[in-house]
Amino acid sequence: MQDAAAEPIAFIDLAAQRRRLGAAIDKAILRVVDHGGYIMGPEVKRLEAGLGAFCGARHAITCSNGTDALALVLMAKGVRPGDAILCPSFTFAATAEVVAFLGATPVFVDCLPDTFNMDPASLARGIATGRRLGLNPVGVIAVDLFGQPADYDAIEPLCADHGLWLLCDAAQGFGATHRGRAVGSIGMATCTSFFPAKPLGCYGDGGAIFTDDDELAAAIRSLRVHGQGADKYDNVRVGMNGRLDTVQAAVLIEKLRIFPDEIAARDRIARRYAACLADVALVPRLAPGCTSVWAQYTLRLPAGRRDAVAATLKQAGVPTAVYYARPLHLQTAYRHHPVAEGGLPVSEALAAEVLSLPMHPYLSEAVQDRVVAALRAALGAGIRADAAA
Ligand SMILES: *Cc1c(COP(=O)(O)O)cnc(C)c1O
Questions:
Q1: Atom of ligand 1 at shortest distance to CA of 65?
Q2: Dihedral sign (CA 161, 164, 169, 174)
Q3: Domain edge (last residue) among 230, 253, 276
Q4: In CATH, what number is assigned to the domain containing residue 29?
Q5: Is the domain of 70 the same as that of 125?
Q6: pLDDT band at 231 (very low <50, low <70, confident <90, very high)
Q7: Is residue 4 part of a domain?
Q8: Ligand 1 pocket, residue 291 CB under 6 Å
Q9: Which of 109, 153, 162, 329 is deepest in the core (most CB within 10 A)?
Q10: 334 lines ligand 1 (CB under 6 A)
Q11: Structural domain of residue 180, as residue ranges?
């Protein structure tokens, strides 16, 4: 038995999951290698059926990655220059990238300080800002940041009032629920990513789109294969090569089996972090009625201290990450795009305060205790003997 105190700590331990899955994935991959249906083989359809059943979506359409998933939906909606799409600034670049790539204008919206998700009041201001600039607001991309669903109670009626579609970027949130509704069954469509470090990841790039809209699903399926019509060599739209590899589908079928159990483990670990750290840092808050898949476990630390704390933790062998050190509206590639009236003060403040801790379903209590002790020491706080009990 190895001494827990000597083991290096992983930020996300994919090797532990691989040990658990044992030979199942190797066998699944080899089956594909042997049957030879590398492109759109039988595993792709089986995975799509499994994903659709998992989240209750009528259509589950797999694709090459989470970014292409977003692009495929925007292409199917005919997004074009002059259109404005409201999206958060405190997110991964892909959320806004697809909007700009299609020549439309992302209008950046602020987030809430406790859930880190889109602020509905800022969204309302952003819609007005877009109109005032002479743009045509057509839709909203809400992000389920760090694994928690956005505030759909407020965002859905806002979209309906303004005639905007709602696309959920659930690259981090697939597997979570909002008032009993599974992520994947909310809004016009939902996109997710199977990038290896996401809660449900494959062994390469992958993504999926979920929708109940038959017409939208048909357009996306066509766009995924070069805008195909009746057959492969009938092109009715300008599309892309956006398919998921069969090998990745085979990997995901095996991982989906244990996903519910992994979600439960993530939740247990997040609760334990909160119990051990709530007295020394701002721990993440779940909105009423929300569950999270805890793609990241992200604290807020006093702004001036975040980087020093991260450096101290690194020395103690505890890896951390900053998601996101710079919001998109301050990035070189995006800073010429408009922001919602009133600015984005929360996004800017969070960028200096957030720190994400090691989080994955196989984080043992012993290792978690080391993370907690190192963080408390870095913050100059004592060990709470009662907290982990
Ligand atoms: C990871 C991520 C994406 C992009 O997914 P890829 O599969 O890496 O293309 C999009 N949006 C958010 C919020 C993400 O975290």
A1: 7
A2: positive
A3: 253
A4: 3.40.640.10
A5: yes
A6: confident
A7: no
A8: no
A9: 109
A10: no
A11: 16-109+117-253
